[in-house]
Every structure is written in C-alpha cells, then in structure tokens.
Amino acid sequence: MRPEILFPLFAEVTTLKGVGAKVAPQIRKVAGPLVRDLLFLAPTGLIHRRATTADQAMEGEVAILDVVIDRHIRPHKIGAPWKVRASDPTGFVHLIWFRGGPHLERLVPSGERRVVSGKVEIFNNEIQILHPDVVKAEAAGDIPLAETVYPSTEGLARRIVRRLALEALKTAPDLPEWQDPAWIARKRWPGWRAALETLHNPQTEADLSPDAPPRLRLAYDELLAHQLALARRRQSRQTVSAPVITPGPASEQVLAALPFELTGAQKQAVVEIRADLASGEQMGRLLQGDVGSGKTAVAAIAMADAASSGRQSALMAPTEILARQHHQRLAPMLENAGVRAVLLTGRDTAAERRPKLAALASGEATVAIGTHALFQDAVQFHDLALAVIDEQHRFGVNERQRLQAKGRDGVHLLTMSATPIPRTLELTQYGDLDVSRLREKPPGRTPVTTAVLPLARIDEVANRLKAAVAEGAQAYWICPLVAESEAIDLAAAEARAVELRAHLGLNVGLAHGQMNGADRESVMTAFSEGHVPVLVATTVVEVGVDVPNATIMVIEHADRFGLAQLHQLRGRVGRGSKQSACILLYGDLGEVARERLDVLRRSEDGFEIAEEDFRLRGGGDPLGLKQSGFPAYRFADPMRHRDLILAASDDARLILHRDPDLTGERGRAVQVLESLFDWRADRPAAD
Ligand code: ADP
Ligand code: MG
User: For the Helicase ATP-binding domain, which residue ranges apply (predicted)?
Assistant: First the structure.
C-alpha cells in the first residue's frame, strides 16, 4: 500500500501544468510516466552565461547579447543555413539556423531588439551563434546566468524538461527521515528534500558530481530501498515452508560413486546446502564458481539427498547439449543408487516423451534433467522438492518460478552460476539469495598458460596450432561477434574457418549463433567426440561444455570481449590433465585495454578477475549485466558507490532484524522509502 503522502509524486506527468498530449510522450521517454520520475531525473550539466557585447564576446563562451536585428539572409541553396545579421553598438554578430525557415522572421524580426544567448563561435573572423538557445524580446536580466541542463530527446526543448523538473520538485513533500540520523550526520548528508533541491539547482560543477553529498544521499536512499526489497524477499521466502530433506542411503551411494574426493570448497557448499534443506524453510541459494569448479557434483549430492528423503528434484540447463551432458554423467550414478533420472528436452518425440512424463507424474522417476522443456505445463511432478538451475543467467525469473511452481509445497531452489561477480554486484543482483562460492579448483589440473599477442602474429599462432593438432590436440578458435555488423562478423568467422581448413589441411568446424540448433549441435558433438580437431566459433556458443581433450583456446580480437567473458572462454580448456594454452590476439590496444588483458595473464581466479574487471572498466555496465536483469539505478552507480552498497545491505538486514514488520517509527519511514522507489513493483532483480 502506497502511503497517501506520496500520491502527488505517483501521479502521471500529465498532471503537471503544461504537459499536454504533445509533450507527455516525450517526457515519458526522457524521465518516465510519473511525476516522481521527473523529480528523480538528474541534471547532466550546467551552462554558465555572461552578458557581454559583440566586441568583447569570447570564442567558446555562452554569451548574452543585446542586439538589434539588421536583416535576414535566406539560404541560397538547399542545406545552407538561414543567417540573421544582428548588431549592438560595438559590432555585429551572425545568428545561424540550419533548417531555418520563415518562422524566424517572426522570432527575430528585422529592425527589432532582441536579447539572444548561445555559444560564441568565430567563423571567417566574424562572431556567430549557431542555434541560439534563448531569444527574448525582454531585458537581458531575465536570462539566467547559470542554467541546469537536463537529458532531453528529439523535439523536446531542454528548458521544458527543466521547468517540469522544478514543477515536480514543488510537489515533493517533506518526508520523515528513514536513514539512521547518526549515519547521516557522520556523512554530512542533507535530508531527502534538501538533497533534491540541490539536485535540481546545482550552483557549481561539483554539485553535479555523483560524489556530491546530496547525490550520495539520494544514491544511498535508492540502494537502501533496493536492498530492503531484496532482504524482504529473502525474509518472505524463509517463511515459506518446504520439505525437510536430509541425506540418506542414496546420498552415500552417489558420494561413493563420484570418481574423486570433493574439494574443501565443494564440501563447504554441501554443508551449507544441507543446512538449508533440513531447515524446513525454503532454500534460495546461489552456487557461484568458475567453469570447472565442480558445481555439478554439488548439485548431484543435493538431488541425491532429496531422493533419499523420498522427494523429486529437477535440474534445468540452458541448452540441449548441456542437459544431455548432465544426464549422461549423473544418470548412471543416480541409477546405481536406485534413483531413476529422465532426460527431457525439446527434441523428444511425443512417443519418447509420454513414458517419461508418466514416470515423473507417478513418482517412479525421481530426477528430471532437461532444458526449457522442463517447465512446460505438460510436465507434472509427483512431489517436486528441489529445483536446480544451471547457468542461471540464461533463464528468466519467470522460467525459474514456473519450475518451482510445480511442487506441492515450497520448492527449494539451487541456482548455479559460472560467472563470478564482485561482491557488490552479488549483493545488488542476488541480495535475496544466500550464496556459496567455490573458489578452489579440483586438483590435478595444470594451469592454463595465457599469452597476449598482437593480431599481426596470427600466422605464427596458426603454425603452432598445426603442430599441436598433429600431436592430437584439439582447439577452439573464437571470433568476436560485434552487434553492429553481425553479417560482417559472421563472414569473418566463415572466412577464418576456410583459411584454417586450407592452412591446416584438416577438418575445421564452424559454430555460430545464426545456425539452427540441430546444425550447431552436430558440429559441437563432432568436436566433443574428437572427430573435428578445430572448432571456430563466433561467441560463447555453449557455456559449460566439457571437452577435456581441448587444450588450446585462441581468441581473436580479445580486446573486444569483457574480461569475465574471456575468462569463461579460457575455462573451456585446461579441463584435462594436459598442459593447456590460451592465446589472446589483440587489435588496437590502449593502456587500459592492455592492463585488462594482462589481468588474465596473471590470474586464473574468476572472482579476482571479476573484481579487477570491475575496477578497470569504471562505472556504467561493466559486465553487461543490464540485459540479465541487473537493476537500472537512477542515482546509484554500482562501481562508484560500491561502499554504499555494502553498507546498504547491512543496514537493510539490520532494519528488518530489529523491526521485521516495519511498524516502529523508523520502520514506517522506511516503508515510505520503499514505496518511493518501488523496487517490488516495477523492477524485479534477477532472482
Ligand atoms: P562446473 O559445472 O562448475 O563448470 P563441472 O561440475 O562440470 O564444473 O566439473 C568440471 C570437471 O571437474 C568435471 O569433469 C568433474 O568430473 C570434475 N570434478 C568435479 N569435482 C572434482 C573434484 N573434487 N576432484 C576432481 N575432479 C572434479
Ligand atoms: Mg557446469
């Protein structure tokens, strides 16, 4: 329930004076549909103006000139600007409009006085103003000397945005303080409304900085609101009862059947998961670990635990090939323990599928492994208690929920991610989940040697590849796909495959995202079975595919990939006991780009690489997370404000711990904050 005091802010922008049918859609585009969205629209700049005369005007400054219009010089050809000559007692100035028209004769009529403002340019030793931003008939004193610049859009004058933002500011009520007073005092942050006042009335460039106290205050408000929403979600999940699952004979047998000893990190993760499963509350846990860190074994044990307790579980993978691989590995181990595991994918024929569905519905099959096919309506479980999602970022929240909805009670959730992310991002993305991290790699792996080389040395690389392949090695060769010109990139990858085929005299496979699923899979399968020694691929075609014999990874234009992505790609080699190599070929490299690639040479720890990548890339969307449900903050920048994220997370948990229903004085204020940002309603986080 939204508190009444916020109603004016949650009214449509059309309730503001001067927002008609024409402006409204433009405002919605720039800010959003609500008055609140205008209130939260941060200015991006500040224009300083100076009142001066034609002889004193300086190039580059934004001048205010008090002039008389001399005459109009119409364009002499299409595309030429409309010029207006104007003068003051000290000299003259040309006012220039591209795409000008006769309406200018009304705006600046010949013989009349006008006050104009705009950026001064010098052209042919004469001063001119291109597209004056203010033209007035009144006195110069009416033009503000400092003017706030807002984001805008085609056809929407910035000053309209400014006027409306200030209008929105007027409707902002004084609200009870939701922040801890001691914290605010220590930070020397203003109150909420005062912070917004300064936001919309910056006096200096420093006021525009994301580190200015009012902006930090607003960023912290936003982060706290988000962390609260996540913490509340976590809290409400813990009140959902879910089956009590404890290890039993099947768990023992699966553990015994694993051809290896669990690593310390795997054991720790199993302990954490078991505590959740036995709690009677619904588990929501993220298992993070690099490619190859052994997440599957951990999941297998959890599923065996469920089976031991007489419950069903499901393992969902994003692709057919991954689902098959999981099934191939896990089914024998599970069957050996008396647990039947069926594989469900989109490729099953109706006749193949029918008995599997029947077995799941009757409970005769205990484990379902599959792709998106798993959450389809036709799939019914007898008693689903645990859902495991592999490569969780490849699924939407919705898909995960549809699978979880197939249980009678709460269904425990274990999501797995092979994309280590910095702790701060973990909190913003998965603040409602508990996290287990696998930082340790299974033993017996030789580290991957990484080389960073210029593209110019590509022939040398191809020759070395030829020698290695002659000795039985397999290699991936990755060509980047840059969104703007997919066709060209694709052609480049195709050409590369042809060249390598000719150069190596060998079978070279090609896999890319534009191929149909079946073709792509047959190439991938041929590669994984060793029939094709070299595979050229455009992107991360199949994350998580395990081909232990592949020991060489060549990445062309490595500078075009994110570090996390490169690290993931590299993770596909070094999976067997043989020495592996990763060759990063770069095109043009700036200083930062070189430093970035160097991080990969130094480290094989995905968590460390993620932190470094985050640090080097600065703000914005360093890991391409926006597409994967990463929150779009208005004030907060996960990079710059990372300390605030950590603080907000602690703060949120503490607030809920002290006042779980938010009924105390601060609790009620905090509820207003929550409504103000409305994280629950409009932007669910990834899980
Ligand atoms: P992930 O899913 O985390 O990328 P996998 O579960 O596919 O990694 O494991 C990668 C490889 O490591 C598999 O071949 C698996 O059998 C092996 N493996 C897993 N855990 C261990 C371990 N504790 N000791 C040795 N090998 C392991
Ligand atoms: Mg995996």
Answer: 276-438
